[in-house]
Design brief:
The complex is a heterodimer of chains A (140) and B (321). By secondary structure, chain A is an alpha/beta fold. In chain A, 41% of the residues lie in helices and 21% in strands. Chain A is built from five helices and five strands. Chain A has a five-stranded parallel β-sheet, with helices on both faces. In chain A, strand 1, helix 1 and strand 2 form a beta-alpha-beta unit. Chain A is globular and about 35 Å long. The relative contact order of chain A is 0.18. Chain B has a seven-stranded parallel β-sheet with strand order 4-2-5-1-6-7-8, with helices on both faces. In chain B, helix 1 crosses helix 2, helix 2 packs antiparallel against helix 5 and helix 4 packs across helix 9. The longest helix of chain B has 33 residues. The C terminus of chain B is likely disordered. The chains are: A alpha/beta (140), B alpha/beta (321). Strand 2 of chain A pairs parallel with strand 3 of chain B, so a sheet runs across the interface.
Chain lengths: 140, 321
Protein backbone atom coordinates (compact mmCIF):
# COMPACT_ATOMS: atom_id res chain seq x y z
CA UNK A 1 0.00 0.00 0.00
CA UNK A 2 1.52 3.35 -0.96
CA UNK A 3 2.44 5.32 2.09
CA UNK A 4 1.64 9.03 2.18
CA UNK A 5 4.28 11.60 2.95
CA UNK A 6 6.90 10.37 5.38
CA UNK A 7 6.08 12.97 7.99
CA UNK A 8 3.02 11.57 9.70
CA UNK A 9 1.19 14.82 10.19
CA UNK A 10 -2.50 14.35 10.59
CA UNK A 11 -4.38 16.95 8.57
CA UNK A 12 -6.89 19.22 10.24
CA UNK A 13 -10.39 18.56 8.90
CA UNK A 14 -12.59 21.61 8.59
CA UNK A 15 -16.16 22.04 7.34
CA UNK A 16 -16.86 25.23 5.39
CA UNK A 17 -20.56 25.89 4.98
CA UNK A 18 -22.83 28.71 3.98
CA UNK A 19 -26.02 28.98 5.97
CA UNK A 20 -28.61 31.47 4.84
CA UNK A 21 -30.15 32.22 1.50
CA UNK A 22 -27.60 34.48 -0.15
CA UNK A 23 -25.69 33.03 -3.07
CA UNK A 24 -22.39 34.80 -2.51
CA UNK A 25 -19.92 32.01 -1.97
CA UNK A 26 -16.78 33.64 -3.25
CA UNK A 27 -15.54 34.44 0.23
CA UNK A 28 -16.19 30.91 1.45
CA UNK A 29 -14.37 29.47 -1.55
CA UNK A 30 -11.35 31.74 -1.12
CA UNK A 31 -11.12 30.75 2.53
CA UNK A 32 -11.53 27.05 1.63
CA UNK A 33 -8.63 27.30 -0.79
CA UNK A 34 -6.44 29.12 1.69
CA UNK A 35 -7.06 26.46 4.31
CA UNK A 36 -6.36 23.76 1.75
CA UNK A 37 -3.10 25.44 0.81
CA UNK A 38 -2.25 25.43 4.51
CA UNK A 39 -2.50 21.63 4.41
CA UNK A 40 -6.01 21.18 5.76
CA UNK A 41 -8.72 18.88 4.46
CA UNK A 42 -11.62 21.18 3.74
CA UNK A 43 -15.08 19.70 3.35
CA UNK A 44 -16.91 22.25 1.26
CA UNK A 45 -20.64 21.84 1.85
CA UNK A 46 -21.85 24.55 -0.50
CA UNK A 47 -24.64 27.07 -0.49
CA UNK A 48 -27.84 27.47 1.48
CA UNK A 49 -27.24 24.91 4.17
CA UNK A 50 -29.63 24.72 7.07
CA UNK A 51 -28.11 24.56 10.56
CA UNK A 52 -29.35 20.97 10.77
CA UNK A 53 -27.49 20.02 7.59
CA UNK A 54 -24.34 21.77 8.75
CA UNK A 55 -24.28 19.97 12.08
CA UNK A 56 -25.06 16.64 10.45
CA UNK A 57 -22.20 17.12 7.98
CA UNK A 58 -19.82 18.14 10.78
CA UNK A 59 -20.58 14.98 12.74
CA UNK A 60 -20.42 12.58 9.77
CA UNK A 61 -17.20 14.13 8.57
CA UNK A 62 -15.81 14.21 12.11
CA UNK A 63 -14.31 17.65 11.61
CA UNK A 64 -11.99 19.49 13.98
CA UNK A 65 -13.47 22.85 13.09
CA UNK A 66 -16.47 24.52 11.45
CA UNK A 67 -16.34 27.73 9.40
CA UNK A 68 -19.59 29.52 8.55
CA UNK A 69 -19.89 32.20 5.91
CA UNK A 70 -22.91 34.41 5.59
CA UNK A 71 -23.80 37.61 3.81
CA UNK A 72 -27.57 37.54 4.06
CA UNK A 73 -27.83 39.22 7.46
CA UNK A 74 -29.49 36.22 9.08
CA UNK A 75 -26.46 35.44 11.23
CA UNK A 76 -28.17 36.28 14.52
CA UNK A 77 -30.76 33.60 13.81
CA UNK A 78 -28.62 30.95 12.16
CA UNK A 79 -25.30 30.94 14.06
CA UNK A 80 -26.81 30.44 17.51
CA UNK A 81 -28.95 27.69 16.03
CA UNK A 82 -25.82 25.86 14.82
CA UNK A 83 -24.25 26.22 18.26
CA UNK A 84 -27.40 24.98 19.97
CA UNK A 85 -27.62 21.94 17.72
CA UNK A 86 -23.98 21.09 18.31
CA UNK A 87 -24.58 21.35 22.01
CA UNK A 88 -27.66 19.13 21.87
CA UNK A 89 -25.54 16.52 20.05
CA UNK A 90 -22.84 16.73 22.69
CA UNK A 91 -20.42 18.27 20.21
CA UNK A 92 -20.03 21.80 21.50
CA UNK A 93 -16.31 21.05 21.69
CA UNK A 94 -16.08 21.55 17.90
CA UNK A 95 -14.96 25.19 17.55
CA UNK A 96 -16.97 27.38 15.17
CA UNK A 97 -15.65 30.46 13.40
CA UNK A 98 -17.47 32.76 11.02
CA UNK A 99 -17.01 35.27 8.27
CA UNK A 100 -19.19 37.70 6.38
CA UNK A 101 -20.86 41.03 6.86
CA UNK A 102 -21.46 41.07 10.57
CA UNK A 103 -21.87 44.36 12.46
CA UNK A 104 -19.60 44.85 15.50
CA UNK A 105 -22.43 44.75 17.99
CA UNK A 106 -23.67 41.43 16.56
CA UNK A 107 -20.13 40.09 16.51
CA UNK A 108 -19.77 40.81 20.21
CA UNK A 109 -22.99 39.00 21.00
CA UNK A 110 -22.13 36.04 18.77
CA UNK A 111 -18.75 35.66 20.42
CA UNK A 112 -20.44 35.67 23.77
CA UNK A 113 -22.77 32.96 22.45
CA UNK A 114 -19.78 30.80 21.54
CA UNK A 115 -18.60 31.69 18.02
CA UNK A 116 -14.84 31.57 18.55
CA UNK A 117 -13.70 34.02 15.88
CA UNK A 118 -15.39 36.35 13.43
CA UNK A 119 -13.70 37.69 10.31
CA UNK A 120 -15.03 40.72 8.49
CA UNK A 121 -14.15 42.05 5.05
CA UNK A 122 -10.47 42.80 4.63
CA UNK A 123 -9.20 40.15 7.02
CA UNK A 124 -6.00 38.64 5.66
CA UNK A 125 -6.05 34.98 4.69
CA UNK A 126 -2.97 34.52 6.82
CA UNK A 127 -4.88 35.64 9.89
CA UNK A 128 -7.76 33.29 9.10
CA UNK A 129 -5.39 30.34 8.59
CA UNK A 130 -3.47 31.05 11.78
CA UNK A 131 -6.65 31.41 13.81
CA UNK A 132 -8.21 28.30 12.28
CA UNK A 133 -5.13 26.27 13.07
CA UNK A 134 -5.02 27.49 16.65
CA UNK A 135 -8.71 26.75 17.14
CA UNK A 136 -8.43 23.23 15.71
CA UNK A 137 -5.25 22.26 17.55
CA UNK A 138 -5.01 24.42 20.65
CA UNK A 139 -2.03 22.45 22.01
CA UNK A 140 0.10 22.54 18.83
CA UNK B 1 -13.14 -14.49 14.93
CA UNK B 2 -16.73 -15.60 14.73
CA UNK B 3 -19.58 -13.25 13.97
CA UNK B 4 -21.41 -12.62 17.19
CA UNK B 5 -18.28 -13.06 19.24
CA UNK B 6 -17.71 -10.44 21.88
CA UNK B 7 -17.03 -7.06 20.31
CA UNK B 8 -15.01 -4.15 21.67
CA UNK B 9 -17.25 -1.33 22.91
CA UNK B 10 -16.66 0.91 19.90
CA UNK B 11 -17.39 -1.90 17.47
CA UNK B 12 -20.57 -2.72 19.34
CA UNK B 13 -21.65 0.93 19.12
CA UNK B 14 -21.03 0.95 15.37
CA UNK B 15 -23.09 -2.19 14.86
CA UNK B 16 -25.83 -0.68 17.02
CA UNK B 17 -25.99 2.36 14.75
CA UNK B 18 -24.02 4.99 16.66
CA UNK B 19 -23.02 7.33 13.84
CA UNK B 20 -20.71 9.42 15.98
CA UNK B 21 -18.58 6.45 16.92
CA UNK B 22 -18.64 5.35 13.29
CA UNK B 23 -17.42 8.79 12.17
CA UNK B 24 -14.64 8.85 14.76
CA UNK B 25 -13.53 5.35 13.92
CA UNK B 26 -13.31 6.31 10.25
CA UNK B 27 -11.04 9.19 11.23
CA UNK B 28 -8.86 6.83 13.25
CA UNK B 29 -8.61 4.41 10.32
CA UNK B 30 -7.67 7.26 7.97
CA UNK B 31 -4.99 8.43 10.36
CA UNK B 32 -3.53 4.97 10.88
CA UNK B 33 -4.36 5.39 14.56
CA UNK B 34 -3.70 2.10 16.43
CA UNK B 35 -6.87 2.81 18.43
CA UNK B 36 -8.88 1.66 15.40
CA UNK B 37 -7.00 -1.58 15.00
CA UNK B 38 -9.10 -3.74 17.28
CA UNK B 39 -12.37 -2.33 15.93
CA UNK B 40 -11.37 -2.95 12.32
CA UNK B 41 -10.28 -6.49 13.09
CA UNK B 42 -13.36 -7.37 15.10
CA UNK B 43 -15.84 -6.01 12.56
CA UNK B 44 -14.42 -7.85 9.58
CA UNK B 45 -16.62 -10.88 10.22
CA UNK B 46 -19.68 -8.63 9.94
CA UNK B 47 -18.74 -7.22 6.56
CA UNK B 48 -19.20 -8.78 3.14
CA UNK B 49 -22.94 -8.31 3.17
CA UNK B 50 -23.48 -5.01 1.35
CA UNK B 51 -22.73 -4.60 -2.33
CA UNK B 52 -19.91 -2.11 -2.73
CA UNK B 53 -20.62 -0.05 -5.82
CA UNK B 54 -17.80 2.07 -7.24
CA UNK B 55 -18.26 5.02 -9.58
CA UNK B 56 -15.22 6.08 -11.51
CA UNK B 57 -14.42 8.03 -14.64
CA UNK B 58 -12.77 11.21 -15.86
CA UNK B 59 -13.06 14.55 -14.11
CA UNK B 60 -16.32 16.39 -14.60
CA UNK B 61 -18.47 13.59 -15.99
CA UNK B 62 -20.98 14.02 -13.17
CA UNK B 63 -20.04 11.30 -10.71
CA UNK B 64 -21.17 13.26 -7.65
CA UNK B 65 -24.54 14.06 -9.20
CA UNK B 66 -24.99 10.42 -10.16
CA UNK B 67 -24.14 9.34 -6.64
CA UNK B 68 -26.81 11.69 -5.35
CA UNK B 69 -29.34 10.31 -7.83
CA UNK B 70 -28.46 6.73 -6.88
CA UNK B 71 -28.79 7.57 -3.20
CA UNK B 72 -32.30 8.81 -3.97
CA UNK B 73 -33.13 5.63 -5.86
CA UNK B 74 -31.74 3.35 -3.17
CA UNK B 75 -33.65 5.20 -0.45
CA UNK B 76 -36.86 5.02 -2.47
CA UNK B 77 -36.46 1.25 -2.44
CA UNK B 78 -36.33 1.38 1.35
CA UNK B 79 -32.64 0.52 1.57
CA UNK B 80 -29.97 2.39 3.49
CA UNK B 81 -26.72 3.60 1.99
CA UNK B 82 -23.26 4.64 3.12
CA UNK B 83 -21.30 6.83 0.72
CA UNK B 84 -17.58 7.55 0.48
CA UNK B 85 -16.51 10.42 -1.77
CA UNK B 86 -12.78 10.55 -2.49
CA UNK B 87 -11.03 13.71 -3.67
CA UNK B 88 -7.34 14.27 -4.32
CA UNK B 89 -4.88 15.63 -1.78
CA UNK B 90 -2.34 18.16 -2.93
CA UNK B 91 1.00 16.40 -3.31
CA UNK B 92 2.62 19.65 -2.16
CA UNK B 93 0.73 20.76 0.92
CA UNK B 94 -1.26 17.62 1.72
CA UNK B 95 -4.34 19.84 1.78
CA UNK B 96 -7.56 19.11 -0.03
CA UNK B 97 -10.94 20.58 -0.85
CA UNK B 98 -13.51 17.83 -0.58
CA UNK B 99 -16.54 18.91 -2.58
CA UNK B 100 -18.50 15.73 -3.20
CA UNK B 101 -21.04 16.71 -0.57
CA UNK B 102 -22.18 19.73 -2.55
CA UNK B 103 -24.28 17.60 -4.87
CA UNK B 104 -25.85 15.65 -2.06
CA UNK B 105 -29.52 16.41 -1.71
CA UNK B 106 -30.62 17.70 1.64
CA UNK B 107 -31.17 14.77 3.92
CA UNK B 108 -30.55 16.29 7.31
CA UNK B 109 -33.06 14.06 9.06
CA UNK B 110 -32.56 10.86 7.08
CA UNK B 111 -30.56 8.39 9.13
CA UNK B 112 -30.62 5.96 6.20
CA UNK B 113 -27.78 7.87 4.53
CA UNK B 114 -24.25 8.41 5.79
CA UNK B 115 -21.84 10.44 3.70
CA UNK B 116 -18.13 10.66 4.31
CA UNK B 117 -15.58 12.64 2.30
CA UNK B 118 -12.04 11.27 2.11
CA UNK B 119 -8.87 12.83 0.82
CA UNK B 120 -6.65 10.49 -1.20
CA UNK B 121 -3.65 11.39 1.01
CA UNK B 122 -1.03 10.46 -1.53
CA UNK B 123 -2.46 7.11 -2.59
CA UNK B 124 -2.53 6.47 -6.31
CA UNK B 125 -5.36 4.86 -8.25
CA UNK B 126 -8.28 7.13 -7.41
CA UNK B 127 -9.06 6.00 -3.87
CA UNK B 128 -7.40 6.48 -0.48
CA UNK B 129 -5.40 3.78 1.27
CA UNK B 130 -8.10 3.58 3.95
CA UNK B 131 -11.09 3.46 1.59
CA UNK B 132 -11.39 -0.31 1.65
CA UNK B 133 -11.45 -0.54 5.42
CA UNK B 134 -13.85 2.39 5.67
CA UNK B 135 -16.22 0.74 3.20
CA UNK B 136 -16.12 -2.35 5.40
CA UNK B 137 -16.98 -0.27 8.46
CA UNK B 138 -20.04 1.09 6.64
CA UNK B 139 -20.97 -2.45 5.69
CA UNK B 140 -20.60 -3.68 9.27
CA UNK B 141 -22.57 -0.64 10.49
CA UNK B 142 -25.51 -2.16 8.65
CA UNK B 143 -25.88 -0.04 5.53
CA UNK B 144 -27.53 -2.08 2.80
CA UNK B 145 -25.39 -0.56 0.06
CA UNK B 146 -21.99 1.15 0.03
CA UNK B 147 -21.26 3.65 -2.75
CA UNK B 148 -17.70 4.77 -3.44
CA UNK B 149 -17.01 7.75 -5.69
CA UNK B 150 -13.40 7.89 -6.82
CA UNK B 151 -11.19 10.82 -7.64
CA UNK B 152 -11.89 12.03 -11.20
CA UNK B 153 -9.55 9.57 -12.71
CA UNK B 154 -7.40 8.73 -15.66
CA UNK B 155 -7.43 5.47 -17.47
CA UNK B 156 -5.07 3.69 -15.13
CA UNK B 157 -6.87 4.61 -11.93
CA UNK B 158 -8.34 1.18 -11.45
CA UNK B 159 -7.85 0.77 -7.69
CA UNK B 160 -11.63 0.82 -7.22
CA UNK B 161 -11.55 -2.71 -8.60
CA UNK B 162 -9.82 -3.78 -5.39
CA UNK B 163 -12.74 -2.51 -3.33
CA UNK B 164 -15.97 -2.62 -5.32
CA UNK B 165 -18.09 -5.61 -6.17
CA UNK B 166 -19.66 -3.62 -9.02
CA UNK B 167 -17.70 -0.92 -10.85
CA UNK B 168 -19.52 1.70 -12.90
CA UNK B 169 -17.37 3.60 -15.37
CA UNK B 170 -18.93 6.96 -16.16
CA UNK B 171 -18.26 8.83 -19.40
CA UNK B 172 -19.95 11.69 -21.25
CA UNK B 173 -20.65 12.31 -24.94
CA UNK B 174 -17.78 13.62 -27.04
CA UNK B 175 -14.95 12.13 -25.04
CA UNK B 176 -14.02 10.94 -28.52
CA UNK B 177 -10.57 9.51 -28.60
CA UNK B 178 -10.62 9.29 -24.87
CA UNK B 179 -13.12 6.46 -25.18
CA UNK B 180 -10.60 4.77 -27.42
CA UNK B 181 -7.92 5.05 -24.79
CA UNK B 182 -10.28 3.44 -22.30
CA UNK B 183 -9.59 0.17 -24.11
CA UNK B 184 -6.81 -0.43 -21.64
CA UNK B 185 -7.33 0.38 -17.99
CA UNK B 186 -10.70 1.79 -16.98
CA UNK B 187 -12.45 -0.05 -19.76
CA UNK B 188 -11.26 -3.36 -18.41
CA UNK B 189 -12.74 -2.84 -14.97
CA UNK B 190 -16.20 -1.70 -16.04
CA UNK B 191 -19.06 -3.92 -15.01
CA UNK B 192 -21.43 -1.22 -16.22
CA UNK B 193 -20.86 1.71 -18.55
CA UNK B 194 -22.78 4.85 -17.86
CA UNK B 195 -23.02 7.57 -20.52
CA UNK B 196 -24.00 10.51 -18.36
CA UNK B 197 -25.36 13.84 -19.65
CA UNK B 198 -27.22 11.80 -22.21
CA UNK B 199 -29.25 14.93 -22.98
CA UNK B 200 -26.20 16.37 -24.74
CA UNK B 201 -25.69 15.84 -28.46
CA UNK B 202 -23.41 12.96 -29.33
CA UNK B 203 -24.81 10.61 -26.69
CA UNK B 204 -25.93 8.00 -29.18
CA UNK B 205 -22.52 7.99 -30.84
CA UNK B 206 -20.84 7.58 -27.47
CA UNK B 207 -23.06 4.62 -26.63
CA UNK B 208 -22.32 3.11 -30.02
CA UNK B 209 -18.57 3.50 -29.54
CA UNK B 210 -18.78 1.77 -26.19
CA UNK B 211 -20.97 -1.00 -27.57
CA UNK B 212 -18.34 -1.66 -30.17
CA UNK B 213 -15.65 -1.87 -27.53
CA UNK B 214 -17.76 -4.17 -25.39
CA UNK B 215 -18.02 -6.68 -28.22
CA UNK B 216 -14.22 -6.85 -28.21
CA UNK B 217 -14.27 -8.58 -24.87
CA UNK B 218 -16.55 -8.92 -21.87
CA UNK B 219 -15.83 -9.38 -18.21
CA UNK B 220 -14.87 -12.68 -16.60
CA UNK B 221 -17.60 -15.29 -16.29
CA UNK B 222 -19.39 -14.13 -19.41
CA UNK B 223 -20.76 -10.82 -18.13
CA UNK B 224 -21.31 -8.32 -20.95
CA UNK B 225 -21.23 -4.83 -19.45
CA UNK B 226 -24.49 -3.00 -20.18
CA UNK B 227 -24.37 0.58 -21.42
CA UNK B 228 -26.79 2.95 -19.73
CA UNK B 229 -27.59 6.52 -20.72
CA UNK B 230 -28.29 8.78 -17.75
CA UNK B 231 -28.98 12.38 -16.95
CA UNK B 232 -29.34 14.04 -13.59
CA UNK B 233 -30.74 17.30 -14.96
CA UNK B 234 -33.99 15.76 -16.11
CA UNK B 235 -33.53 12.52 -14.18
CA UNK B 236 -33.15 9.84 -16.83
CA UNK B 237 -31.92 6.28 -16.68
CA UNK B 238 -31.22 6.25 -12.94
CA UNK B 239 -33.61 3.38 -12.24
CA UNK B 240 -32.13 1.46 -15.14
CA UNK B 241 -28.60 2.09 -13.86
CA UNK B 242 -29.52 0.77 -10.44
CA UNK B 243 -31.31 -2.23 -11.96
CA UNK B 244 -28.11 -3.05 -13.81
CA UNK B 245 -26.17 -2.89 -10.54
CA UNK B 246 -28.64 -5.30 -8.96
CA UNK B 247 -28.43 -7.57 -12.01
CA UNK B 248 -24.65 -7.59 -11.83
CA UNK B 249 -24.71 -8.43 -8.13
CA UNK B 250 -27.05 -11.32 -8.91
CA UNK B 251 -24.74 -12.47 -11.68
CA UNK B 252 -21.80 -12.46 -9.24
CA UNK B 253 -23.68 -14.88 -7.02
CA UNK B 254 -25.08 -17.16 -9.70
CA UNK B 255 -21.84 -17.43 -11.68
CA UNK B 256 -19.49 -17.93 -8.75
CA UNK B 257 -17.64 -14.78 -9.77
CA UNK B 258 -18.26 -13.18 -6.38
CA UNK B 259 -16.17 -15.76 -4.59
CA UNK B 260 -13.50 -15.73 -7.25
CA UNK B 261 -13.30 -11.91 -7.19
CA UNK B 262 -13.28 -11.80 -3.41
CA UNK B 263 -10.47 -14.32 -3.20
CA UNK B 264 -8.44 -12.30 -5.64
CA UNK B 265 -9.06 -8.98 -3.89
CA UNK B 266 -8.39 -10.40 -0.46
CA UNK B 267 -5.22 -12.07 -1.58
CA UNK B 268 -4.01 -8.70 -2.89
CA UNK B 269 -5.00 -7.08 0.37
CA UNK B 270 -3.30 -9.63 2.60
CA UNK B 271 -0.10 -9.59 0.56
CA UNK B 272 -0.19 -5.78 0.53
CA UNK B 273 -0.60 -5.58 4.30
CA UNK B 274 2.14 -8.11 4.84
CA UNK B 275 4.48 -6.29 2.47
CA UNK B 276 3.74 -3.08 4.29
CA UNK B 277 4.70 -4.61 7.60
CA UNK B 278 7.81 -6.30 6.29
CA UNK B 279 8.89 -3.00 4.78
CA UNK B 280 8.35 -1.16 8.04
CA UNK B 281 10.15 -3.82 10.00
CA UNK B 282 13.08 -3.68 7.60
CA UNK B 283 13.30 0.10 7.96
CA UNK B 284 13.14 -0.16 11.73
CA UNK B 285 16.01 -2.64 11.82
CA UNK B 286 18.11 -0.68 9.38
CA UNK B 287 17.76 2.36 11.57
CA UNK B 288 18.43 0.37 14.70
CA UNK B 289 21.65 -1.38 13.69
CA UNK B 290 23.02 1.10 11.16
CA UNK B 291 23.67 -1.70 8.70
CA UNK B 292 22.46 0.46 5.85
CA UNK B 293 24.96 3.18 6.65
CA UNK B 294 27.87 0.74 6.58
CA UNK B 295 26.74 -0.79 3.31
CA UNK B 296 26.23 2.65 1.87
CA UNK B 297 29.92 3.49 2.24
CA UNK B 298 30.80 0.43 0.19
CA UNK B 299 28.21 1.18 -2.47
CA UNK B 300 29.20 4.83 -2.77
CA UNK B 301 32.84 3.79 -3.14
CA UNK B 302 31.77 1.30 -5.82
CA UNK B 303 33.17 -1.61 -3.80
CA UNK B 304 29.82 -3.39 -4.02
CA UNK B 305 26.76 -2.76 -6.18
CA UNK B 306 23.26 -1.83 -4.95
CA UNK B 307 21.82 -5.26 -5.75
CA UNK B 308 24.44 -7.02 -3.69
CA UNK B 309 23.87 -4.53 -0.87
CA UNK B 310 20.16 -5.34 -0.95
CA UNK B 311 20.96 -9.07 -0.86
CA UNK B 312 22.99 -8.54 2.27
CA UNK B 313 20.27 -6.50 3.93
CA UNK B 314 17.68 -9.19 3.34
CA UNK B 315 19.96 -11.98 4.53
CA UNK B 316 21.04 -9.85 7.46
CA UNK B 317 17.53 -9.07 8.54
CA UNK B 318 16.64 -12.74 8.31
CA UNK B 319 19.56 -13.71 10.49
CA UNK B 320 18.72 -11.04 13.02
CA UNK B 321 15.50 -12.87 13.75
Amino acid sequence: MPKARPAKKIPIRVLIAKPGLDGHDRGAKVVARALRDAGMEVIYAGLRQTPEEIVRAALEEDVDLIGLSILSGAHMALFPRVLALLKSQGSHDIPVFAGGIIPDEDARRLKKAGIRAIFGPGTSLEEIVTTARALARPSA
Amino acid sequence: MKAGARLPAAARSIVDGDRRVLARTITAVENGDPAADEVVRSLYARSGRAPVVGLTGPLGVGKSSLVNALVGRIRSLGQTVGVIGVDPSSPFTGGSVLGDRIRLERRADDSGVFFRSMASRGAAGGVAAATREVSRLLDAAGFDVVLVETVGSGQVDVAIREIASTSIVVVVPHLGDEVQTLKAGLFEIADIFCVNKVDLPGAEAAKRDLAELVTLGGRPGGWAPPIVGTSTVEPTGIDELWNDVVAHEKFLDSSGERTRGERQRLSHEIVGLARDRVGKELLRRLEADRSLRRLLDDVVARRIDPRTAADRLVVGSRRAR
